[in-house]
Amino acid sequence: MYRFQNLGKNAPIDALVDRTLEPRLNQIFVPLLSVVGDPTIRAELRQIARERNREIVADRGMDVEAQVLEVIKDLAGQQSKMTVAEVTAAFIERYGREYDRPITNKWIGYLKQAAAVLKVSEATVRRLVKEKILPAIQHCKGAPWLIRACDLDDETIKRTADARRQRRPPSGDRRQNILAL
User: Fold this and answer.
1) What span, in angstroms and rounded, lies between the C-alpha atoms of 125 and 131?
2) How far apart are CA 128 and CA 56, in angstroms?
3) What is the Cα Rg of the chain in Å?
4) Where in 5-151 does DSSP place strands (E)?
5) What pLDDT digit, counting tens, does each position of 36-92 carry?
6) 51 vs 27: CA distance, rounded Å
7) Structure-derived torsion over alpha carbons of residues 18, 22, 25, 27, reported in degrees to the nearest 10
8) Which of 23, 34, 150, 161 is the most buried (most CB within 10 A)?
């Protein structure tokens, strides 16, 4: 009955939308927050919404890659070209509170960065990805591979890269010396 009596009187206030929440939670909580005038109760409702959002994210098993994809998808809807810095800024705005470490542009690396860190060629990195030794995501064919910096620090991956580096055949040219570094 309340809804019919107050139809059109209290329109949802767009300023109450919390972009860090799942869209469905905003759809539920914004109208509720719009009719609540007490700032204390609004703060409590926002806290409930944030807690529920964390539960939803945890239940879904949403990891960093999925969050980055979500940010990229949202940015792609707003602009045709985007930089890593823009993706990072949007990621920090949306998910920064969930991480204990600083989020930087370098946190997510590409093939060249991964190759440099592992001291192997880009082709070796691609083979490690193809063999599912090195976790990576490629959003579409031709797009760069996204590789988390923490995966490059994994001891198993480092040992595998070292083994691949050791398999390089020595040059047949006697003028080239093998240096032990």
Assistant:
1) 10
2) 33
3) 24
4) 108-109, 137-138, 145-148
5) 889 999 999 999 998 888 887 666 544 666 777 788 788 888 877 777 788 888 888
6) 16
7) 80
8) 161
